[in-house]
Amino acid sequence: MYRRERSIPLRGSAAALPNNLSVLQLPARDLMHFGVVHGPSAQILSSAPEGMPLAQRQLQIKVGVGVSPPLITQVHWCVLPFRVLLVLTSHRRIQMYESDGSLMVYWHALDSGDASSAQATFARGIAASVHFICVGTWSGRILVFDIPAKGPNIVLNEELAGHQTPITDIATERAQGQDGVADMVTADDSGVLCVWRSGTVFTLLNRIPGFGVPCPSVQLWQGIVAAGYGNGQVRLYDASTGALHVQISAHARTICALDLAPEVGKLLSAAEDTFVQIWKLNRDPESGSIGVEHCHGECISDTQLCGARFCDPSGSSFAVTGYDLAEILRFSSV
Q1: SS (H, E, C) 211-266
Q2: How many CA atoms lie within 13 A of 289 on its CB side?
Q3: In a domain, 115, yes or no
């Protein structure tokens, strides 16, 4: 069971974008960072664990004088083995900052050369894998940036091709680099999932076909791919084979966010139907079959949800954002 805790006020409401919440836990400093997109700005908030707001910062995409800043599509913290970077994506470029947003260390302009006149350019879908940061684009390609241990010498390492429609989300597992082990999954607007192995050169291991429904959010845990779809379904696949093991009619409307608590295998799903659901994933060690059980449901009345994240790796608390809601809602287990 979870109960509602003190909410954190926002300067502006969250934009109606999927995956519109990022959370960074800093236990050594007894701090939580939250990131939320609001139009052309990203709000970066720091709070004490009990929800007391401590600091707030607004970031925008840098453009020329007299030019309106572009809309931001996502904000996300990328936790690498040696540093943490805050990444913003937009319709014009990608920007990377130090973890508190105080200093921009790198930016990358989006090349609109291969976009038709009717097609908007944008980046969306952000994840860290070993010493790389991967970012999805409108063209279906994934940009892989090589991140140094410190400093701004970030370079575009390669571009991954596996999708024909815009990328929606990217998820990775922390136990990367093992031979033959899938450690990254990407999703797109047609519902296609691509399973990758990271490394100096990324390798496409599996391509799970879509069924005509977008997949706004995806997660990866111990070889299990969890995908949330526009029809409210959550599907669980085996990452190594691409086989579908579980199909859940989890929500009545489009799923806007999935998140995983890696220490315990809890899966959080949030959707435009106002509900947040908590599930527990498991795998039979003998047969390899994947199972799931429902743990908790929470209704956020009269709210179109757009972001939801666990606040710790054990899944003992989570946070939620909603469209036209000028606060971050927090819940903790009892």
Answers
A1: CCCCCCEEEEECCEEEEECCCCEEEEEECCCCCEEEEEECCCCCEEEEEEECCCCE
A2: 4
A3: no
Per-residue pLDDT tens for 220-257? 999 999 999 999 999 999 999 999 999 999 999 999 99
**Residue at 129 is within a domain:** yes
> Which of 97, 45, 93, 101 is CA-nearest to residue 73?
93
Sequential DSSP letters for 167-185? EEEEEE-SS---TT---EE
pTM over the 0.90 mark: yes
Which residues constitute the domain of residue 97? 2-61+70-110+120-333
- pLDDT for 72-90, tens place per residue? 999 999 999 999 999 999 9
Stretches in the chain below the pLDDT threshold 70: 113-119, 175-180
Q: Which residues contact 9 (CB under 8 A, 6 or more apart)?
A: 53, 326, 327
Domain count, the chain: 1
3-class secondary structure, 53: strand
At residue 183's C-alpha, the angle toward residues 182 and 189, to 5°, is 95
Count the Cβ atoms, other than its own, within 10 Å of residue 68: 7
Q: For 272-289, how does the pLDDT look when each residue is reduced to its tens digit (9 = 90+)?
A: 999 999 999 999 988 889
Q: What is the pLDDT, as a whole number, of residue 180?
A: 66
Per DSSP bridges, beta strands 31-38 and 22-26 are antiparallel
